[in-house]
User: What shape does this take?
Amino acid sequence: MGAVEALRLVWDEAFTAYDFGVEHPMAPIRLELTARLADALGLLDAAGVHVVSAEPASDELLLTVHEQAYVEAVRRASTRPTLEDLRFGLGSSDVPTFPGMHEASARICAASRDVALAVWSGQAEHGVNFTGGLHHAMPGAASGFCVYNDVGVAIQALLEAGAKRVAYVDVDVHHGDGVEKIFWDDPRVLTISLHENGRVLFPGTGFPEEIGGAQAQGEAVNVALPPGTSDAGWLRAFHAVVPPLLAAFEPDVLVTQQGCDSHVLDPLAHLALSLDAQRASYEALHDFSHRYAHGRWVAFGGGGYEVVDVVPRAWAHLIAIAAHRPVPPGTDVPASWRDYVAARCGRSAPQRMTDGANIDYRSWATGYDPADAIDRVVLATRKAIFPLHGLDPYFD
Assistant: This one.
């Protein structure tokens, strides 16, 4: 075996074929702009970074998490869509059908499986597929812009390869319901989702009392944050829940979903994070992989619909951190990328790799404040989950 790669990174323009059309918010240009910014920052050809593509996954791989009737429906809808597709969540405004939908979705699954196994086998220390993170897809239906659940496929592949415990942390603004559903009753998989409260945001789930199936009580963890949550509150909740559970669970590998639609500029949700807080969470998850998961980290993209100001900078930071080449927040955005954005999108691009935010937050060790809405959310989750892991919900 050759030298261990610092990062196995998925990118190929073929992944932009996952395209619901010009009016859909999940515009594939966000992937292109991310890759171009990472390249302009010198990340794609950095030492230790191996950029890979993938061929579409076989049905055999898809069927590790999806139902056969659903895979057949996706394949059929990719060439001759009908009203019957709606029975499988296909053809809606959220998940319109498009030619080649099966192949484009299956390619993302194969890529996510491949980088996960590269990390598990020791070929790469970390793996990133920012084209993936399609966490809403259910075993038998499409949902929330997601056709196949590449995250579920990757986690299942890790289990089949020998991982005894996989921890999944989802920081997308929407509840990671599809991944949670797939592993609801599997005690080998801990799923943690921090998201905006389902009473005000799709998919309407992800409450503290949703704790896993009968065989996996406490393995589904949900932090349902109120609208308007900003950096300090979000980071307080994140650090009050994620590291204690990872320490107790002792995963063999850490899998994360880095949807950046929690940003204040995102048009589809109501949290108010800065790029700097998002970057801080990526740094923390990288640290957690080394502290709790033997250095094994597999990270995916996900949501994010401010396609110029937010997504490319957020995921370029993710790539840089995973490559052990973090980009200082004050770094100027390369002029070549800004020129490309102006020509391609007809708008100005950000000047720096930061929003200039102060990301201080109070540790849970400072004590619970019943008057604080964030603290009430955090305590509800900790009370539902922590005792099942032998942890104190009130004190660290």
The chain has one domain: 5-389. Residues 101-121 form the longest helix (21 residues).
